[in-house]
């Protein structure tokens, strides 16, 4: 059997993926996570002396903490199985990645296992996130200095 015939056979026998359903559940899951984040942000503004601008940092910290707790309890895995890519919303996905790596390597001990591997998945996110923030801040600074934008 040649490669073309083999690929045609595989395409015929492979189960069809429910792309529309997967997109819808990812959209709804991500939307619910973001909605919860917005509610937490409103709570910080209502109960504490935060503005719309200053409530973002404690909101992000709270969302990461919630994702870490849910991962530790095994609930975030179920959310990920249902929502797919929608559960990988950057903030909660970061918390999940950190705790998942820690849980996976806890049998190797706290120092070499948890400590050595906790940022295995999230390390690249941190590196590229910091680099991207630097580039965006540099571009903004240049545009402000040139007078293109008034910030």
State the secondary-structure class. mainly alpha
> Can you give the mean pLDDT?
90
Beta fraction: under 5%
Rg calc: 21 Å
Ends distance: 65 Å
The biggest beta sheet is recorded as: none
In total, how many beta strands?
A: 0
Low-confidence stretches: none
SSE ordering: HHHHHHH
Shape: extended
Query: What's the domain count?
Result: 2
What level of helicity do the residues show? Answer: over 70%
* Total DSSP helices: 7
Provide a compact summary of the structure.
This protein is 75% helix and 0% strand.
Describe the structure.
- The structure is a single chain.
- By secondary structure, this protein is mainly α.
- The protein has two domains: 3-120, no CATH class; 122-151.
- The protein contains seven helices and no strands.
- The protein has helices at residues 3-13, 19-47, 56-72, 75-83, 90-104, 110-117, 123-146.
- The longest helix is centred in the first third of the chain and has 29 residues, at 19-47.
- The protein is extended and about 65 Å long.
- The mean pLDDT is 90.
